[in-house]
Amino acid sequence: MEERKAFLARYETNTHRLGRICTTVTLLLLVGAPFLIGRVIGAQPDMMAVLRGYLAVGLVWTVSSVAEFLIYTPMLGAGGGYLAFITGNLINMKIPCAMNARDIAGTKAGTTENDIVSTLSIATSSLVTIGVLALGVLLMVPLQPLLTSPTLSPAFDNVVPALFGAFGYQYFRKNPRLAAFPLALMTVFFVCVPSLASQTSVLILPAGAITIGLAYRMYRKGQKDQKGKSSV
User: Which pTM was predicted?
Assistant: First the structure.
């Protein structure tokens, strides 16, 4: 038992150290790339234009980024969180992959086992994504007539809704009473105000708060019912 605790402590320490190093390197590369390219070709970016562009969309994405960090990190753990945020595409790829792996392995969020499973699943997803992208680049020209076909266009437009519909159903069916109201409320919001579709990450917070409140109310009601039965 002591050896296991010591190993897990080293694993967590090494994960955070490696994650911070890789995150720092990634940020430097992402931010430094425009300046490096500009220096090579002799055309530095206009910083005022960059600032105006950031103010136009950056404030919204800043709130979204903070919300995603607070929501997804407890689900993914340290290793999975670092790897997912570095490689990107969380909502479409990394989160469904990690949640599916967690269900298959039977681990619980917040445990070291879940951290390891999430890290392995996200790493596998990242490698598969890189392989598919590389293959897609090589086959882009030969497959272009097929990919731009009007027949397949509706399918490509509905990949994400189909993915999350199937992904969400496996959780909704576990407690339909709990899922019904938040799902209906968010559906009404998106139908009445279609522009909210671009604010999905921000709306996760109120939807999650409503769900937690309903779950707590159902829990308290169940406790009262059990006390009433036991007193009888």
Answer: 0.61
